[in-house]
Amino acid sequence: MRIVVAPALGRSFTVAIALLIVGVVAGEALQRPTAKNGLTAVKHLTCRFTAAASVSWSGPAPDVHLSSPDQPLIIDISKIDIDEGTASITTAAGTSTATVTVNGSNLYVLSLPPSGDASLTTVFSQESKNNRLKAVHTRAAASVAQYGGECEVKQK
Description:
- It is a single chain.
- The chain is mostly beta strands and 156 residues long.
- It has one domain (2-153): Lipocalin.
- The chain has one helix at 10-31, and strands spanning 2-4, 45-57, 62-67, 73-81, 86-91, 94-103, 106-111, 118-127, 133-140, 144-153.
- It has an 8-stranded antiparallel beta barrel with strand order 2-4-5-6-7-8-9-10.
- A hairpin with a 5-residue loop joins strand 8 and strand 9.
- It starts with a strand and ends with a strand.
């Protein structure tokens, strides 16, 4: 599905999408306890993202695209060290060092590789199915994309 925003609706639609995303994240936060959780002990995750929303600019108004990619986005997060605040993140583009933290009941992985791109992966302490955890991945480069999926906790 492709959504192209008309210039007159561009700002309103963009604000509506932003509010929707904030509402979903806030709703997730309200459902989770803030007590210390098991994510502080996680050392390795393999994440699979199967739904995507992207925004690109071909003129003054943003174009929004919703999709279910033919191939899922796979991200491997290893060497997670909460005390040091570091992790290693591997995607199809390569491997880089990331900053990692647990806040409330979520695990956040921020990657700022030399390419200038930025990505943030949020792993929620809520299970989706088959003992996997709900997750979102946001990437900001020439275009912006947000992916939804799940992460599997791996044993060393």
